[in-house]
Amino acid sequence: MQIQKPRGTYDLIPAEVVKRRYVEETARKVFSNFNFNEIRTPTFENTQLFKRGIGEETDIVSKEMYSFNDGEFTLKPEMTASVIRSYLENSLYNESPLQKLFYISNMFRAERPQKGRYREFSQFGAEAIGSGDYSIDVEMISLGDSILKALGLKDYTITLNTLGTNEERKAYLSKLKEHLKPFENQLSETSKVRLEKNPLRILDTKNPEERKILEDAPVLYDFLSDESKTHFQNILTSLDALKIKYVVDYKLVRGLDYYTSTAFEFISSELGAQSTILGGGRYDVLVEMLGGKPTPAIGFAAGIERILILLEEKEKAGKFTFPEDNKLNLYIVNAGLKDNSKIQKLLLDLRALGIKCDSDFLSRSVKSQMKESNKYNAEFTMVIGETEVESQKCRLKRMADGKEIEADLNRIYDDIMLFEELLRKQNPNG
RNA sequence: GCGGAUAUAGCUCAGUAGGUAGAGCGUCAGAUUGUGGCUCUGAAUGUCACGGGUUCGAGCCCCGUUAUUCGCCCCA
After folding, report:
1. Do the Cβ atoms of A90 and A119 come closer than 8 Å?
2. Pick from A101, A104, A165: nearest CA to A129
3. Which of A109, A130, A381, A412 is 20 to 30 A from A58, alpha carbon to alpha carbon?
């Protein structure tokens, strides 16, 4: 029996690699424009890092981690914990008080696969470590927005909330529990468990009955300090000034323990259950939790597969096209030349000069080779046989319009560059 | 992890009442000797996801497995 790829993984065949590279390169370009620097960390970490950083009770840590070596190591299920670990381990805080970092990497979570949800998946994301100022929150949101716009996406909603500080949340949570207690029997099993362990997550429910119960539940925002409220309002004011549209949703929460204060999600309606294409927020306590000095920080991550699904849907609808790979500059047709090394020598010289060129390796007919050249969308084609080798001359054909010049085999590169001029000289009327 | 659906050529899909597979696209070759795109002609390719069962006989029916997909859940 054929061996299959593991569940929830995928192959990227050449046609798909081109699309993915477009996403990665576009993201990289925008990150760079925002003066964020790339960071790369190991594929696996000590399991302890994620337990401490993400939280033992989270779904990710409690049931979705790929651990091995008796649980000592774990394939990274997200990047933030790794980035902070690396930030501390390499003392990046000594290089400058604000570190603006980005990453593009694959992650691993043992979830049930679905559209837009894989067991090995990819994210690009950014972390700004060292500033508690609201302006960096705005910077991050506009960074995410800029990348998606640069990619050609615009049909998404930016949803914002603020989760306040741990102390503020504590006061709120007891009120929320009080509100939910009477309805406990109507809650789902998971919500019942959460009522004790993490009541905030109940706000996130999709269950219509639970949503109803939550309608007149206390609102977290009302429990926040003036400082927290001002921080949030300043962000909103700035976003208005930048003409970035958003929706405030006081029920938006995040699933990882390290989040505090600002939280945001970029949501698309075209992805079914996996509607979040980009999500993030502040995590002002994480650096300290991982052994550093108290350091405010904020980050986000975006799902590359989800973005690709959206772009492919747009492509199908005729509203988008992926940029093509660089086309072949020259295809050399071998017309019965026994000594192929003469052609390969030519290819080698041209390639060294930066020309993308190829030839036949199947001893096919001239006609087939021409078709091949056409399929590769080659800019130029030339035919070389015994006659050409002897005379050191050949005909160089431009595929777009079929026009030809006589070219010198000893200076093909120059002739390609001078094509138009030579064409005029050789055919003054054509 | 729970519930539903699906699984036929590289791709998109047909396949009638169970009688051992087809189309379009793509690929390859040819349409007079060494020149592509259009057109025409022709060819190749499937253990009908895998394993078992029912039957004289299964792509079609039954069971299991695997994978995909939708919802829950989770999140990017």
Report:
1. no
2. A101
3. A130
Distance, CA of A416 to CA of A430 (rounded, Å): 18
Torsion of CA A227, A233, A238, A239, to 10 degrees: 140
Q: Determine the pLDDT at residue A101.
A: 98
Nearest to A141 by CA among A258, A106, A149: A149
CB neighbours (10 Å) of residue A392?
11
Sorted by sequence, the CB contacts under 8 Å of residue A424 that are 6+ apart come out as: none
A241-278 tens-digit pLDDT? 999 999 999 888 887 778 889 999 999 877 777 789 99
Distance, CA of A284 to chain centre: 24
Q: What is the ipTM of this complex?
A: 0.88
Give distance CA A425 / C1' B22 (Å). 57
Torsion angle, alpha carbons of A148, A149, A152, A153, to 10: 60
Query: Tens digit of pLDDT for each residue in A151-192?
Result: 999 889 999 999 999 888 888 888 888 888 888 777 777 777
The count of other CB atoms within 10 Å of the CB of residue A237 is 12
Q: What is the C-alpha to C-alpha distance for residues A83 and A89, in angstroms, rounded to an integer?
A: 10
Strand B closer than 7 A to residue A157 Cβ: no
* Pick from A107, A119, A116: nearest CA to A80: A107
What size, in residues, is chain A?
A: 430
The token duo for A41 is: 């960390």
- A417 C-beta less than 7 Å away from strand B: no
Report the amino acid identity of residue A78: E
For A329-360, what is each residue's pLDDT tens digit?
Answer: 999 999 999 889 999 999 999 999 999 999 99
Contacts for A57-60: CB closer than 8 Å, 24+ residues apart: A57/A197, A57/A198, A57/A257, A58/A255, A58/A256, A58/A257, A59/A255, A60/A109, A60/A255, A60/A256
Strand B–CB A188 distance below 7 A: yes
Q: Report, as an integer, the average pLDDT of A304-321.
A: 89
How many other C-beta atoms can be found within 10 angstroms of the C-beta atom of residue A387?
Answer: 12
C-alpha–C-alpha distance, residues A66 and A77, integer Å = 8
CA–CA dist A102, A232 (Å, integer) = 24
Nearest nucleotide (CA of A125 to C1'): B76
Instruction: Tell me, yes or no, if the pTM score tops 0.80.
Output: yes
DSSP per-residue codes, A258-289: T-EEEEEEEE-TTSTT--EEEEEEE-TTHHHH
